Amino acid sequence: MVRLIFRDQEFQVKSGMTLGAALTKCDLNPQMVLAVRRGKLITEDVILEEGDEIKLVAVISGG
Amino acid sequence: MSDPFAARYLGRLVLGGGVAAVKCRTCGEPAVINMRQHKLALCADHYVAWFQGQTERFIGKYGMFTSEERVLVAVSGGKDSLALWDVLLTLGYQADGLYIGLGIDGGVQYSAESLEMAQRFAAGRAGAELHVVDIAGEYGLGVPEAAQLTIRGRTKPCAVCGMVKRHVMNRVARDGGYAVLATGHNLDDEAAVLFGNTLHWQVGYLARQAPVLQESAGGLVRKVKPFCRFYERETAAYTLLQGIDYIYVECPFADGATSIHHKLVLNGLEAEAPGTKLQFYLSFLQARRAGAFAGMEGSAPEMLACRTCGQPTTAGDQCAFCRLWETVRVRRHS
Questions:
Q1: Structural class in CATH, domain A2-58
Q2: ipTM of predicted assembly, 2 dp
Q3: Domain map of chain A by residue range?
Q4: Residue spans per domain, chain B
Q5: pTM
Q6: Which tens digits make up the pLDDT trace of B132-183?
Q7: Which of B236, B83, B257, B242 is nearest to A32 (CA)?
Q8: Are B34 and A45 inside 8 Å of each other by CB?
Q9: In chain B, which residue's Cα lies nearest the Cα of A63?
C-alpha cells in the first residue's frame, strides 16, 4: 500500500499506480498540491512503490 | 518502445512496461515539476534557475523597477512573499522586507508564527533587512479586535485588514525612501480577482488591474507584482526547493473566502485544459493594453493629504486608516 498524507487526512492507494492516478482516486486536483516522496518533489507520472509515504503540500492560499 | 530521440524530444523517457517518467528538458535528469501550460518539465536545479530568470524577465517586460531602485517587499511569512524576497536578493536587487503584525491568533498563533518565519528568513540572508510594524503595539489593538469595533469590520474583517496593510505599506515605503513596493501576488491570485471582477462586471476594477500600479503625484508609491505570471504551484515549488520555511496554515479569516472559491473553480478548469488560467490572465492583459477598458477607470479622484497622518487619501481630509483608529478609540472606551 501507499500512503498519501494531505493536511490532517490520510489516503491509502495500491502501489503500481501513478501519482496522478492516485490523486484522482483520492479526489484531489493535481493542480492544487505538490507531492513529496523521500524529501523530493515528484511529478504526476511517477509510479508509486510499495510502502511509499507521499506528503502532499497544499499550494492554494489566500483570503 | 525505445526511441531515444523521440523520448528526448518529448521530454519523456519511456521505461519498461510503457511507463513514462518526465525528464528535465534541459539536462534529461528526472523532473521535479511538469508545467503543462508551458509544456515544460525541469529538474530542481534548472527549475530554480528558470524561476529566477523568468522573474527577471517579468520585471523588465513590465518595467517594474531597475537595479538602481530600492524595493520594499511586503512579507507575510507565506510562500509567495518569502520566495519573492529570496529571488530579488538572489538577482542582486536592493530588496528589504516589511512584515506587518496584524495581531491575528485564531487559535494557531497565526501572526506570531508568520513573524517568526519572516525573521528566520531575514536572519539567514546576508543583507536582508526586515522592517516590522506591530499594529497592536502602535495602536493598542490588533486588526481583528479593531475591526469588531467598526460596522464594516464586523462583517468584513478582511476589508479592514486590507486597508490597514495598504496604508502601512505605503507609509513605510515612503518614509524609507523606497521607489517601489513589491508584493508576492501570483497568477492564481490575479486570475481569481479577475474572475470575480468579471463575474460582476466591475469594469472600474478591471481597468485598474495590472502587474504595475504607477506611483501617484499625491504620494502613493509604485506597486508591482513580479510573480503575476507564475502559478501558485510554481511559487510553492520554488519555496520548497530552496528550503525556505514558510507559514503553512491559512489565515483563520481566509476560511470560506470568495477568492479561494474562485481559485478552486479555476483550478478545476485548469485540470481539464492546461493553460486555462494563464490564457485567461494574459488575454485580459492584452485586451487591457489594446484599450478594451480605456476610459472605464472613472475619473481620478482628487488626492489630498490626510490631516492626521499626511498620507494621500481620496476620502476627504482624513484617510480611512486614521478614521478607523479614531472610531476604535471612541468605541473602545464608551
A1: alpha beta
A2: 0.96
A3: 2-58
A4: 1-46, 62-332
A5: 0.92
A6: 999 999 999 999 999 999 988 888 899 999 999 999 999 999 999 999 999 9
A7: B236
A8: yes
A9: B254
